Amino acid sequence: MAQKYTLEEIIASSSRLFKNKQVLKPNYTLKGIDDILHRDEEIRIYFEYLKDIFVGVSPNNIFIYGKPGLGKTLITKLVLDLVKQEVKKRGIDLCVININCDEIKTEHAILQKLVQEIPSDEPRRIIGNSTDKHNEYLKYLINHYQGIIIIVLDELDKADKPEMINKIIRTESEASGQFPTIIGITNDLKLRDRFPPHLKSVLCENDLIIKPYDATQLADILRARTEMAFQPNVVPEMVIDLCAAYAAQDYGDVRRAIDLLRVAGELAEARNESTLVEQDVKDSCAKIEVDRAIEVIKTLSTQSKAVLLACIYVYDSPQENITANIYEVYKKLAYEIDINVLTQRRVTDLISELNQLGILEGFNDFRGIKGRKKVITKITSKEQALQMLYKDERIEEVKNYHPSVFCR
Ligand SMILES: Nc1ncnc2c1ncn2[C@@H]1O[C@H](COP(=O)(O)OP(=O)(O)O)[C@@H](O)[C@H]1O
Ligand SMILES: [Mg+2]
Hints:
Layout: H1 7-16, H2 40-50, E1 62-65, H3 72-89, E2 94-100, H4 107-117, H5 131-144, E3 148-154, H6 165-169, E4 181-186, H7 191-194, H8 197-203, E5 206-209, H9 215-229, H10 237-250, H11 254-270, H12 278-298, H13 302-316, H14 323-337, H15 344-356, E6 360-361, E7 378-379, H16 382-389
Parallel strand pairs: 1-4, 1-5, 2-3, 3-4
Antiparallel strand pairs: 6-7
Helix pairs in contact: 2-3, 4-5, 9-10, 9-11, 10-11, 11-12, 12-16, 13-14, 13-15
The structure holds adenosine-5'-diphosphate (ADP) and magnesium ion.
């Protein structure tokens, strides 16, 4: 029988290991620039790019790129915080507008945000809904603002039309004779090549490439975070090194390293341990993998979900899990849930895609090799995957059938 705990015991246990868990949450931002480790050179270059501000001149546009979780958003925020403080001391007007294009995606929404935020002595005009009117009003506001405008477009690749910034970059202020400065940030290393040549050269006047951290640097960052997050002596060095090693294996993503440590701490807490142990990190790694796979499944199209369901049914059946069999099951499922039946070729592509997303394993290994069959060797967290699939309103229709109905 499971042991019973009182609420008090549970509350007490939550502070036994953690001192301040918030600092391990994905949205936690460090307080000051000195808290950023191993980015001295990048920060120096950043200030160098921005230094014109201190003499009242708009700096050139800046383009920052690097894979996720390498500190691009963090560095930008803390560098600009410091710039804002300095500028204030010198009596220079500066307006910094921060837009996360993953949240504010459309051209219209971005313009809306800009016209809300550019300072103006006059009351805001009511301009209706048209994008043209917004563009016009933005121009007006830029024209009448005396100070320097910096527009940070984080996750720029997620915007519907990243090239819309072309217009903003070219809007000269009649009041100050300056153009707004854009700081474009992206995880997508190829975004730049998608811009028209003119935009590419103006936007990327100054670029900053953020490189992955190695395991030693990750361990330093984790150590600093551990001191803030955990009680003394509950996280052994070996645990920190293991989290750093796992994250470095991927590509040196700090977000992943911190997640690993947090989840390891939560597991240790649930297991009533007094310190974190190696197994907590291993299990944390597995758990994060499962959570990630489930998140991905949630965003799949109904077609891909049907293909995945067919893969699972065949995988669990006595049939060999090869494309031909999966396709037969897929066809029956598609008919039952009333979606278009795709060609076998297309279904094969979708299975490969599931493989690339890490939801299946093995399938791609044999791709294109004549005479070999494409066999799935593993389905990541099958049970949770099934639960997630049945949440799709179409797929739900087959929830109560026995899979063998489709595997004949
Ligand atoms: N050099 C660093 N020192 C301390 N923490 C860092 C460092 N780089 C990144 N982080 C932390 O890693 C996480 C991801 O950083 P973030 O700036 O959001 O990455 P990106 O924008 O590149 O995806 C955040 O929690 C951040 O605080
Ligand atoms: Mg970011």
